[in-house]
Amino acid sequence: MIFRTPLNLCGFAILLFLSSFLYPDTASLFAQTNSQGTRHKMMEFRFLSQKRYTNPHADITLFAQFLHENAGTSNPSNQTSVRIGGYWHGDTVIASDTLSIYKIRFAAPLTGNWSYRTTCTDSTNTRLHGQGGSIEVAPYTGTNHLLQHGFIKVAENKRTLAYADNTPFFYLGDTAWEITCRSTIDEVRSYISTRKSQGFNAVQIVAMSHLGLIEDGVVNRYGQGFFRRGTNFKIINPRYFDYLDSIVTMLNDSGMIAVIVPSWANGMTEANFRPDWFSVMLSNEAVLLMGKYAAARYAGNHVIWIVAGDATYSTQAQQQFWGQFAEQIHQMDGRQHLTTAHCQGHRGTFEFFPNSTSWLDMQTYQSSHSVPSTTPRDLARRGANGSPLKPLLNAEPVYEDIVTSFWSDNSSFDRRAVSENVRDAVYGSILTGALAGVSYGADGVWQWNSRNHPSTALRPRFHVDSAIRFPAARQMGIMKSIMENYRWYDFQSSQNLLWRADPVNAVVDVVRHSSVILAYFTPNTLNAAIDVGPLTGQRFFRWHNPVNGLHTAFQPVVVPSNFAPTFTPPTTTQDWVLAITNDTTVVTERVFISSTPGSPILPLHTTLHVYPHPVDNNGSCSVEFTMLSPSMIEFRLFTTKGEHIFTLPPQWYNTGNHVVTLNLQGLSTGVYGLHLLEATSRRLVQKSLLVKQ
């Protein structure tokens, strides 16, 4: 249930800041005739309407046609003409007159001179209809990947994604559905910084909410309702979107895609109403208005659209309605952004919308939260090879620390998914055919369980500020680095190369392209025989530890007469990634801090969050770790010869995530051993290596 939060002084101050950012002085509110902009960066055009409408966004539709100076020529980019919808941004008072503000947001795909001209369905409104101007668009010179390479599109291979300039894009999303209405600006700032450092490049959010529906739709932490009060879900409140603007802008400024669900489908919409879930619903008219508004408001941002959330689309009426919803989004955003949908657990969009569906750019599935489960691989196999080909993404594998059977009984709340379950679902999905990428999720984050605004949804054990540091989050960044390192976009599922595995029920996933065979070994796999015949010349192999990012050195493959050598992982107690290649020039990122393979983790269940993390210029290195049971812990640093350097004083740590800072100033470049001990019993909990470069 979503509760209304009163607007406090802090919230009011932040809203004043947002207003100063979103509302320029009145002189600039009139339409600009000549402007300057930067390629791939959102530009905003503002218009004042002296006419006012009962429902300002629904009663009229505003468009602007943007034309490049080379429009009509044989420009190979085919991006010389873009038609963008406008939206109502609210009202303003000038000289005692109340005027309506309309805006159009556009990001130019090409440098050079652009012109634009507006059309309005009310052609008598000359402040909106027939306005025009020109824009000089300069190249972008910074380091933001989104602005360097452009909007995300389907890659030429039709199996993966790419930026507009064809640079490959591996989708690593995080799930933060409720961030839009339950967060504060400071929480969002910390969240984005952390997720960016972990390697994520997309965040899945719901514009309104998927957990509750009250009189004003939903009310955010700053007291703004999604709909204007007392309008029965008919008139959208632009001020609610001011805060959403800040979230989308912060994501894009960090090089991350905002993956937006304008309207959650399951339960609260007329098309997918569930009276056992909600007592009220949004009409189809209200839902279409939400899609029209969001698509226009974020047409100039770097976004991907999910047209509906967590539902089945079994009836013809449902399929037609959500198709209409998607087409309306495409109409308003100039068909510049990818569009997909989101299914209930254990289902895929390909079950309801064939690959020939024009509005569906990418198929997705939700393998859901049961463990162990064959669903991640089963749905990948079913969805990967439709005709015509389309990218496939597991949009919701098991969330870390979520209850694994939450529809059964109360005892299920004692059974939680761990990082090993997440890795199995993620690697199993990608290496079985879902090559577009994956969305990670953490319990405590998806429902935004903050300290000052706790959530009861599925009884989260950790708050957002702790849950964003679960071990598997860093391991997703390691996974993404492995995929990018070995050109995942060229992979094809090649399970036929697996000749045998020991034991016979072991799961080993195999993919390959012309120079690499990649295999994922699940825990307890003793060995596997893999046919290396498709790789010509001399072959080499190495093992990647998906827990900490370390890898072994390349070793030659001894090829038997049947071309199926047997590979034995370094340990059998965890999962491993095997890379076999005939090209050892592949470069892997340097590892700065990482666990030693096979390090003992005792029943205390204390786990170091180990990930590539450099020592900063001041000689400091932050080490993160998780306590699943409270205890007294101390850290000791040694040389590789066992010489003791220093010990951090023992300290009591409660259950949850923690960070300690090690001061390495004065130490020479080299490798050091870091020991984490339970101080009360002096027993070693975990060893790690720390590399100072």
Structure description:
The longest helix is centred in the middle third of the chain and has 18 residues, at 316-333. The strands form eight sheets. The chain has a nine-stranded mixed sheet. A six-stranded antiparallel sheet has the order 21-23-24-29-26-27, with no helix packed on it. The two termini are 50 Å apart. Helices cover 18% and strands 28% of the residues. Helix 6 (284-297) packs parallel to helix 7 and helix 8 (375-383) packs parallel to helix 9 (419-430). It has 693 residues and is an alpha+beta fold. It contains eleven helices and 38 strands.
Question: What topology does this entry show?
Answer:
Elements: H1 9-22, E1 34-38, E2 42-49, E3 62-68, E4 81-85, E5 87-94, E6 97-107, E7 112-120, E8 132-138, H2 145-149, E9 152-154, E10 161-163, E11 168-169, E12 171-175, H3 179-182, H4 185-197, E13 202-206, H5 238-253, E14 257-261, H6 284-297, E15 303-306, H7 316-333, E16 339-340, E17 347-348, E18 363-366, H8 375-383, E19 392-394, H9 419-430, E20 437-440, H10 464-467, H11 471-485, E21 492-493, E22 498-502, E23 508-512, E24 516-521, E25 527-530, E26 540-544, E27 555-556, E28 566-567, E29 576-581, E30 593-595, E31 606-609, E32 620-627, E33 631-639, E34 644-647, E35 651-653, E36 656-663, E37 670-678, E38 683-692
Parallel strand pairs: 1-8, 12-13, 12-20, 13-14, 14-15, 15-16, 18-19, 19-20
Antiparallel strand pairs: 2-6, 3-4, 3-7, 5-6, 7-8, 9-10, 10-11, 17-18, 21-23, 22-25, 23-24, 24-29, 25-28, 26-27, 26-29, 30-38, 31-32, 32-36, 33-34, 33-35, 33-37, 37-38
Helix pairs in contact: 4-5, 6-7, 8-9, 9-11
